[in-house]
């Protein structure tokens, strides 16, 4: 049972627990993002075009950044008192409101979307101020974060009262300040680095949420079609793509970036790990939508160009993000795996370019084969005889 009053405490000290897992409250908090990601997927499903993809990205970023803000706060200052639970409840309300306003988030409900985001940022600012009051050692960091996030929230508040396109200009300015705030606190971050086991698990859990939407997309796509051989084969390929991305991500996941940031004194490693996850989860979410659209396409007619580009481009984005993480040693440092990830992205883009006229099952089958090759390479390279510690590997 939660304490009535338990001030925030620093959870990253040298003498803190070696292993730390997500709390029940954090897992409960994640549930509202299941809904938010689902609504974002529905938005993209209804807007399969260049402008639709850009709109999807524009709406996805604030949702993802809201999760990042709460996760990093809990990683350093988590407590289980009534005040913290109520603040988390307010943040869940804000994310739920974001989800409600997603479908017309760039149109008639953009004011509601902006004010929902503001509510979440205000709660986060209150949490950082509260942590700074109780933990003097962390006060420089909490002050920097509270100030930056408050300025961004003010810009988003102003945007709610402006017409388009100025509203979205202020959104962009607010997000720039939001993203720049951690970058401006690099030295302070090194003094209070995140917990090395808790944060990778949290990032993995959000990735699971997005992959879950890809699984839901397969089920929905099949349920809306008449059962035939080609549809079933396409569904198997769709599940194979999701499995492959899961495999190559989680087999290389760990606390390496945080440990390296601590030992080498380089906050840039941690920041690369953080920000590269954005294109990764965007790609996973978009690939789920693309798979559903493939399954809903007429099996004996050529796959529409927009769907083919969405499928190939989103999966390619996932592998490019993983290539960056591999090459810079943010996850398992491996030159061979980097080459395979980049190669996969190139092949997928080639399928998008030269695959015009192919049937849906052919396109999704080719994407599944490219993804499966990534798994086969990782498994073969991970045999006990392979020296993964060799920096030339």
Report the major sheet: none
Give the termini distance in whole angstroms.
49 Å
Shape: globular
Order of helices and strands: HHHHHHHHHHHHHH
Reconstruct the topology from this structure.
Blueprint: H1 24-46, H2 50-77, H3 82-100, H4 110-134, H5 139-159, H6 166-184, H7 186-191, H8 198-223, H9 229-250, H10 256-264, H11 267-296, H12 305-327, H13 335-354, H14 360-381
Helix pairs in contact: 1-2, 1-3, 1-8, 1-11, 2-4, 3-4, 4-5, 5-6, 8-9, 8-11, 9-11, 9-12, 9-14, 10-11, 11-12, 12-13, 12-14, 13-14
Structure overview:
- 75% of the residues lie in helices and 0% in strands.
- The protein has 14 helices and no strands.
- The N and C termini lie far apart (49 Å).
- The relative contact order is 0.10.
- The model is unreliable at 385-392 (pLDDT under 50).
Task: Give short descriptive properties of this protein.
single chain; 393 residues; mainly alpha; 75% helix; 0% strand; disordered C terminus
Short description:
Helices cover 75% and strands 0% of the residues. It has 393 residues and is mostly helical. It folds into two domains: 24-191, no CATH class; 198-380.
């Amino acid at each position: 049972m939660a304490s009535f009053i338990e001030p925030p405490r620093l959870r990253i000290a040298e003498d803190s627990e070696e292993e730390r897992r997500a709390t029940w409250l954090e897992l409960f908090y994640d549930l509202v993002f299941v809904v938010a990601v689902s609504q974002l997927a529905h938005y993209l499903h209804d807007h399969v075009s260049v402008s639709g993809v850009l709109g999807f990205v524009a709406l996805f970023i604030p949702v993802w950044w809201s999760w990042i803000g709460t996760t990093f706060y809990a990683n350093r200052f988590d407590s289980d008192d009534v005040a913290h639970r109520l603040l988390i409840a307010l943040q869940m309300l804000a994310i739920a409101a974001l989800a409600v306003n997603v479908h017309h988030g760039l149109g008639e409900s953009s004011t509601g979307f902006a004010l929902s985001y503001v509510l979440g940022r205000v709660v986060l600012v209150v949490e950082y101020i509260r942590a700074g009051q109780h933990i003097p050692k962390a006060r420089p960091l909490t002050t920097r974060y509270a100030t930056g996030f408050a300025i961004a929230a003010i810009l988003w508040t102003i945007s709610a009262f402006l017409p388009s396109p100025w509203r979205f200009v202020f959104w962009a300015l607010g997000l720039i300040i939001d993203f720049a705030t951690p970058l401006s606190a690099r030295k302070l971050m090194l003094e209070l680095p995140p917990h090395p086991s808790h944060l990778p698990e949290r990032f993995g859990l959000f990735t699971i949420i997005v992959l879950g939407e890809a699984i839901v997309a397969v089920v929905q796509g099949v349920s809306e079609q008449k059962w035939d051989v080609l549809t079933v084969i396409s569904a198997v390929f769709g599940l194979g793509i999701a499995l492959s991305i899961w495999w190559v991500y989680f087999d290389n996941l760990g606390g390496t970036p945080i440990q390296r940031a601590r030992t080498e004194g380089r906050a840039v490693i941690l920041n690369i790990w953080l920000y590269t996850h954005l294109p990764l989860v965007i790609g996973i979410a978009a690939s789920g939508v693309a798979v559903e659209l493939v399954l809903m396409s007429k099996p004996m007619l050529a796959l529409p160009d927009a769907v083919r580009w969405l499928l190939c481009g989103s999966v390619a984005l996932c592998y490019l993000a993983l290539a960056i993480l591999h090459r810079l040693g943010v996850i398992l440092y491996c030159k061979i795996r980097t080459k395979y990830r980049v190669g996969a992205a190139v092949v997928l883009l080639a399928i998008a370019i030269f695959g015009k006229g192919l049937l849906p099952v052919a396109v999704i089958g080719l994407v599944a084969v490219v993804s499966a090759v990534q798994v086969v390479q990782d498994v073969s390279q991970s045999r006990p005889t392979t020296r993964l510690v060799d920096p030339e590997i």
